[in-house]
Amino acid sequence: MVVISALLIGLVFGAGIALSGMANPAKVLNFFDLAGNWDPSLIFVMGGALAVTFVGYRLVLKRPGPLLGGRFHLPARRDIDPGLVLGSAVFGIGWGISGFCPGGVIPALGLMRFEPVVFVAAMVTGILLARILKRQDLSAAPGRQGV
Length: 147
Known about the structure:
mainly alpha
């Protein structure tokens, strides 16, 4: 049941991304082009997503747990550290250069174009590199055995 639910949720998410234009890098890049061919329509997409998230979190987190899982997996940390700032910057730079974000590129893979494949390969490489660097950082910490 969990797999079927995840598939259906993913299909709805992907359809929303495709319908909103978030899978089209030209539309996204035009949103960022304030001095040129600016397309403000994605403000409504992002505003709608924020509104649904704001309301949804307040409703869902009142429940004792997820419908199809044991417990909620929420971040334990609330501080702003250099990794968070650097990750946000890399996300924004990548989105501004390519016109893709991780959520929008997955449905774009279905277009059978080269650009989304390159983006996903770069994204996976970055994720793996970050994990390797984090592991090395943890194992080099004083008083820590290899993690």
